[in-house]
Amino acid sequence: MDLCFTIVIKCENGYQVSYQLAYQPCPVWMQGDKYVVNMCDDGVHYKKGAFGKLLEFHKKDHGRVIHTDKQCLLISDKKWTENTGYDGNDTLNLITEDIESEGFRVTAIQF
After folding, report:
1. How many domains does the chain have?
2. CA 89/CA 106 separation, integer angstroms
3. Which of 8, 41, 60, 99 fits a 20 to 30 Å CA distance from 17?
4. Bond prior to 27 in cis (omega within 30° of 0)
């Protein structure tokens, strides 16, 4: 099973858009089964700036305007750390910090 996080971004007019951060084995942003931002050139670990790359894709290719309050959900499995061979235990914090560095408020949900 691939390590995967889901981000849901609040957009204007009541819409939301979701993307998945999957490790296959390098981190890639996906929408459904489609790769939208491949970060393999940056190595196999999540690095700050990856969310910014997703925002660039979203602004260029998606068409939904992000709501001015910049809210998003970060969803993960409670047992995501059991997917060994990928990033370490601080990955969830790294992703959260990266999203916040772009001015977003993050609500993390683990189930």
Report:
1. 1
2. 18
3. 41
4. no
Pairing state between β 27-31 and 34-38:
antiparallel
Q: Token pair for residue 83?
A: 């997917």
Does this model's pTM top 0.85? yes
DSSP string, the chain: ---EEEEEEEBGGG-EEEEEEEESSSEEEEETTEEEEE-GGG-SS--TTHHHHHHHHHHHHT-PPBPTT-EEEEEE-TTGGGSTTSS-TTHHHHHHHHHHHTT-EEEEEE-
In which band, very low, low, confident or very high, does the pLDDT at 43 lie, cut at 50, 70 and 90? confident
Mean pLDDT for the chain?
Answer: 87
Q: How far are the Cα atoms of 32, 72, 77, 96 from residue 104, in angstroms, in the given order? A: 23, 7, 21, 9
